[in-house]
Amino acid sequence: MSEQPKALSQQDARRRIAVPTAAMLPRIGESLSFLFLDMMRIIQDDTGLIAFPAQPAPNRRLRIPTAALSCLLLGPGTSITAPALSTLARNGTTVVCTGAGTVRCYAGITAPGQSSKWLEAQAGAWADPERRLAVATRMYEQRFGQGVPSGTSIAQLRGLEGQRMKAHYRLLAQRHRVQPFKRSYDPEDWDGQDPVNLALSAANTCLYGITHAAIIVLGCSPGLGFVHTGTTHSFVYDVADLYKAELTLPLAFALHASEQPEAEARRAFRHRLKLFRLMPRIVRDIQTLLDPTQADPQQAEDGPELDDVQVVHLWDPAAGTVPGGVNYAAGEDTPWLA
């Protein structure tokens, strides 16, 4: 007689349920935006991730919805275990570590099994000077809200953008009666900065985290920038700049009299993400910027599927791509296989 399978123990059953499957993962457009934690310890238990204060406190535990979370911001004094990081990796959640004064240090986690379609589109456009200039021009045009004359150089675009930002700073300063205002970012003298600069740096940190999450989900490289260069997060800064004038700048000036500008900026920014539906916009904009002919507006609005079965192809210089998982040996007596 065949042996009957042993019944799963309660602990084994809970662990099996806790392992996320592709069908459990939501679209990026439906995901929660981000969660900021500081002075916390994050661990993996039998059913998921739990965060609790670094200093033990009764009844202060937080369940982290990893399968529906786009970005986890880890502030000062936060620690996380290796099993917890593994769970975040399986769910495709981006982890962003921020130091004292929200000095940024990114750690991106790419979900396995993603298509390389948009990575290849990004790399191809980045490596071709003409296509790279075209993408950079489309970025500036989106920030200007209008087209630019044909033949405008990248240096001229930088100058136009500089004038635009000065005018925008001046307008917001006059509206909120903040005079004079000068943008500054000095990690060495963080507490000596005014509330507007503190709020702007905090909001930008959150924006960079959300942008980084969208780039990772699409399978693109954060380091291949078209306007920015020289850092592993050049493309993050490129894409985030598209939304600062609309999102983080007005928010920062509105907090010019705040006693806790950084905390209030994070909370207000999270609320604005729901109003602006920022994550689907970022996905759609990245696709349109990289290759307008391939962008799928409906998919960008809903967000890329994470549970699609991705077929791996093989590169061929003549045919382009050929199906993978096929044995292409001509026969046992093929000379070059001997």
Automatic annotation (TrEMBL):
<dbReference type="InterPro" id="IPR050646">
    <property type="entry name" value="Cas1"/>
</dbReference>
<dbReference type="Pfam" id="PF01867">
    <property type="entry name" value="Cas_Cas1"/>
</dbReference>
<keyword id="KW-0460">Magnesium</keyword>
<dbReference type="GO" id="GO:0016787">
    <property type="term" value="F:hydrolase activity"/>
</dbReference>
<keyword id="KW-0479">Metal-binding</keyword>
<comment type="similarity">
    <text>Belongs to the CRISPR-associated endonuclease Cas1 family.</text>
</comment>
<dbReference type="GO" id="GO:0004520">
    <property type="term" value="F:DNA endonuclease activity"/>
</dbReference>
<protein>
    <recommendedName>
        <fullName>CRISPR-associated endonuclease Cas1</fullName>
        <ecNumber>3.1.-.-</ecNumber>
    </recommendedName>
</protein>
<dbReference type="GO" id="GO:0003677">
    <property type="term" value="F:DNA binding"/>
</dbReference>
<comment type="subunit">
    <text>Homodimer, forms a heterotetramer with a Cas2 homodimer.</text>
</comment>
<dbReference type="InterPro" id="IPR042206">
    <property type="entry name" value="CRISPR-assoc_Cas1_C"/>
</dbReference>
<feature type="binding site">
    <location>
        <position position="161"/>
    </location>
    <ligand>
        <name>Mn(2+)</name>
    </ligand>
</feature>
<dbReference type="InterPro" id="IPR042211">
    <property type="entry name" value="CRISPR-assoc_Cas1_N"/>
</dbReference>
<dbReference type="InterPro" id="IPR033641">
    <property type="entry name" value="Cas1_I-E"/>
</dbReference>
<keyword id="KW-0238">DNA-binding</keyword>
<feature type="binding site">
    <location>
        <position position="228"/>
    </location>
    <ligand>
        <name>Mn(2+)</name>
    </ligand>
</feature>
<dbReference type="GO" id="GO:0046872">
    <property type="term" value="F:metal ion binding"/>
</dbReference>
<feature type="binding site">
    <location>
        <position position="241"/>
    </location>
    <ligand>
        <name>Mn(2+)</name>
    </ligand>
</feature>
<keyword id="KW-0378">Hydrolase</keyword>
<comment type="function">
    <text>CRISPR (clustered regularly interspaced short palindromic repeat), is an adaptive immune system that provides protection against mobile genetic elements (viruses, transposable elements and conjugative plasmids). CRISPR clusters contain spacers, sequences complementary to antecedent mobile elements, and target invading nucleic acids. CRISPR clusters are transcribed and processed into CRISPR RNA (crRNA). Acts as a dsDNA endonuclease. Involved in the integration of spacer DNA into the CRISPR cassette.</text>
</comment>
<keyword id="KW-0051">Antiviral defense</keyword>
<dbReference type="GO" id="GO:0051607">
    <property type="term" value="P:defense response to virus"/>
</dbReference>
<keyword id="KW-0540">Nuclease</keyword>
<keyword id="KW-0464">Manganese</keyword>
<dbReference type="InterPro" id="IPR002729">
    <property type="entry name" value="CRISPR-assoc_Cas1"/>
</dbReference>
<dbReference type="GO" id="GO:0043571">
    <property type="term" value="P:maintenance of CRISPR repeat elements"/>
</dbReference>
<keyword id="KW-0255">Endonuclease</keyword>
<dbReference type="InterPro" id="IPR019851">
    <property type="entry name" value="CRISPR-assoc_Cas1_ECOLI"/>
</dbReference>
